[in-house]
Amino acid sequence: MSARLGHENVVIGSLAQIGRCGLFLLRILSAVPRSFQHVRETVRQLWFVGAMSLTIIMTCGLFIGMVLGLQLYHVLSIFGGTSATGSVVALAVYRELGPVVTALLFAGRAGTSVTAEIGLMRATDQIAAMEMMAVDPIAYVVAPRFLAGLIAMPLLCCVFCGLSIFGGHLVAVDWLGVDNGTFWSNMTANVNVWDDVINGLIWKSLVFGAVISLIAVFQGYTTPPTSEGVAYATTRTVVASSIAILALDFVLTAFLM
Amino acid sequence: MSQRKSYAAGTGLFIVLGFAALVYLATQTTSVVNSHQGASYTVEAQFANVGQLKERAPVKVAGVRVGQVQSITLLPGKDVAQVRLSIDRKFDQVPADSTAVIYTSGLLGDQYVGLQFGNAKSYLADGGHLVLTKSTQPLEEMLGKFFGAGGTADAFGGSYKVNAHFTNVGTLSVGAPVRMAGVAIGSVSDVKADPVKLDATVTMLINGKYNQIPDDSAAAIFTSGLIGSQYVAIQPGGSPNSLKDGDQLVLTQSAMQLEDLIGKFLVNGSSSGNNAGGNGSSNQPAGKH
Questions:
Q1: DSSP letters of B40-82?
Q2: Around A58, how many Cα atoms within 13 Å sit in the side-chain half-sphere?
Q3: d(CA A65, CA A84)
Q4: Can you tell me the mean pLDDT for A118-141?
Q5: Which pLDDT score, from 0 to 100, does residue A114 have?
Q6: CA nearest neighbour of B213 among B268, B256, B147, B160
Q7: Can you tell me the mean pLDDT for A244-256?
Q8: B160, B181, B184 from B152: Cα distances, Å
Q9: Mce/MlaD domain: from which residue to which, for each copy (chain B) (predicted)?
Q10: Which of A122, A167, A207, B128 is the most exposed place for a label (fewest CB within 10 A)?
Q11: Does the distance separating the beta carbons of B109 and A51 come in below 8 Å?
């Protein structure tokens, strides 16, 4: 009996969470015009969530590209099709791995810190203080971080994909001996700028950026004002973002294909 | 203030880097590369079959890309494909008697047009014609040539069915060729034992092209070579009427069994199989000594 009740509470609880999250998105969007008064804050957040994430994104992109090149070379050599390595690396990275891995890393690197920062502001009553000083915390704290995540994600994803191609080239051409011209000409023959780069890479990473930023600021803003609450909120950001990214990835792929 | 400046510059750098990566990915790793082309001239070539050749497929000389396929159209009134090739202005010294060949890059790759240089002193100009072309070789055709059977084109009339009764079909199997004058004209579609007549009924599918075979022709089961597979040979008769779908070949000659032949040869055909068998068994111990 109590277990059934618990289940219902979980379902209703998560539904309510999603509903509050949606309403919060509307609040953020309505505060975006006002947040343009604090452009400098947006730039500072962009520096923090975007530029500071570059190192990890570039490193991971390089390794993803390298491992893709290695794996694909060995699988494709079974069929005598190693010349397709370049195009398959590019297609896999543009369509799936680039946006998804960048988003997962972004959630771990930037989403958590945004949640923790806003959560601590909440716990230490800084947000309440802002409200008392008639500074809208949504416009001053939340919206700049949301916008920064939205802008940073596609840019990070592009850098990630570039480094992945470079890593794939490093392994396939410089190490395993696929012909350089074949690698590039196969890639340029099979990758379509509209389907793969714009639809695959830009749209997906924009949506992922919006979702991660929304979850991060929402969890931070609504955290219980205790140190334990901040810890839980940070964890929930990572878990919820990861699930949302992977689920949305499927939905987006189905729609954008 | 200085700290603020540093992150502003860093952020700017980040944005520039991100957009640079996007521009690089979009322009250098996608098909946009191929659509960009400089001054070029157009030549025409006609192919009997362009296979899977697509527009914008590369044109190569010695494996180096010199241009691309501009358009593929059907020559009006003919079953010939007209292919327009736009070749880069840089490569303006293509001999006029060059051969255009459609190749496939790799086993599963895309098709492209390869130019094999001729010896002429004059060069191709804009609007020129490549007279010598080689079409694609469809895989089925090549396999057909390789296996000796499918080289001929199927008649659109399809094929018709003919039955024949044999007392012994030997090892004739479904799919075995039906030959007339040594040329395959059809295949065996069914081999069944007749439950009433107690012999074998062989159904043959004969190509509709060969519709002038006299209806009193004989069917014989032969072996190609000493240990080859068996086939049905049609030996034409003299009747003015020709075979039609569902007809039966009355005159048949069954498969020769090697054992029968040897038996006939050894004992002049009159002795029974028992004797030959006895010989065989009596030989065995001798062989063991």
A1: EEEEEEEES--TT--TT-EEEETTEEEEEEEEEEEPTTSS-EE
A2: 10
A3: 15
A4: 91
A5: 94
A6: B160
A7: 91
A8: 17, 16, 10
A9: 40-118, 159-237
A10: B128
A11: no
Using a CB-CB cut-off of 8 Å, the residues of chain B touching A54 are 14, 17
Encode pLDDT of B121-131 as tens digits. 888 888 888 87
SS3 B181: coil
Greatest pairwise CA separation for chain A in angstroms = 70
Chain segment B21-73, per-residue pLDDT in tens: 988 888 887 777 766 667 788 888 888 877 778 777 888 888 888 888 888 88
Q: What is the DSSP string of A54-75?
A: HHHHHHHHHHHHHHHHHHHHHH
Tell me: pLDDT of A58 over 80: yes
Residues forming beta bridges with residue B226, ordered by sequence position: none
Tokens 């070539």 belong to: B45
Q: Do A191 and B17 touch (CB under 8 A)?
A: no
Q: How far apart are CA A95 and CA A62, in angstroms?
A: 17
Phi–psi pair at B108, nearest 5 degrees: -115, 5
Strands B111-116 and B128-130: unpaired
Q: Which two tokens stand for residue A208?
A: 């992922």
Q: What letter would DSSP give residue B32?
A: H
pLDDT tens digits, one per residue of B216-227: 888 888 877 666
Task: Average the pLDDT over each of A124-133, A200-209, B48-57 and give the range with the smallest value.
Answer: B48-57
Q: Any idea how long chain A is?
A: 257
Question: What is the residue-wise DSSP string for A106-170?
Answer: HIIIIIHHHHHHHHHHHHTTHHHHHHHTT--HIIIIIHHHHHHHHHHHHHHHHHHHHHHHHHHHI
Give residue-wise pLDDT tens across range A155-199: 999 999 999 999 999 999 999 988 888 888 888 878 888 888 888
In the structure, what pLDDT confidence band is assigned to residue A25 with cuts at 50, 70 and 90? very high
ipTM greater than cut 0.85:
no
Among A107, A68, A139, CA closest to A216: A107
Is residue A4 predicted with pLDDT exceeding 60? no
* Strand B159-166 relative to strand B58-61, pairing: unpaired
Write out the H or E segment, with its range, that includes residue B276: helix B273-288
Q: Is A151 exposed, middle or buried (CB count within 10 Å of its CB: 0-12, 13-18, 19+)?
A: buried
Nearest residue in chain A measured CA to CA from B3: A44
Q: Would the pLDDT of B135 be above 60? A: yes
The amino acid present at B87, given as its one-letter code, is I
Chain B positions in Cβ-Cβ contact with residue A51 (cut-off 8 Å): 7, 10-11, 13-14
Interface of B with A (CB under 8 A): 4, 7-8, 10-11, 13-15, 17-19, 21-22, 24-34, 58, 65, 105-110
Which tokens go with B54? 């697509």
The three-class DSSP label of residue B193 is: strand
